[in-house]
Specification:
2 domains, 7 helices, elongated
Length: about 90
């Protein structure tokens, strides 16, 4: 079956798409994202971590750059980490 035919069927019968792919389908370019994901990981078991985990190193670097020596509590509120985590990160 061609992707064009598959996309038409998927759009017509959205209620029949398996979770969590039904949620992905709702996104802009959702069908294309599902196709790319399936081609890359088809047949395997894939764990998808939270965005916070995926981008942890980026967030840590951002916190370090924003730290001015006096704004730990502000960083705690902004990033949702514990004060202990932020203090340990900054050491």
């Amino acid at each position: 079956m061609s992707e064009k035919m598959l996309k038409a069927a998927a759009e017509r019968y959205r209620d029949s798409i398996l979770p969590p792919y039904d949620k992905i389908m709702e996104l802009e370019n959702g069908f294309e994202a599902i196709c790319a994901f399936s081609k890359a990981f088809s047949g395997g078991s894939v764990y998808v971590p939270s965005l916070r985990t995926i981008f942890k190193e980026c967030i840590d670097q951002e916190i370090q750059e924003q730290h001015n020596g006096k704004n730990i509590r502000e960083l705690v509120r902004a990033y949702g980490f514990s004060e202990r985590y932020i203090r340990n990160l900054l050491r």
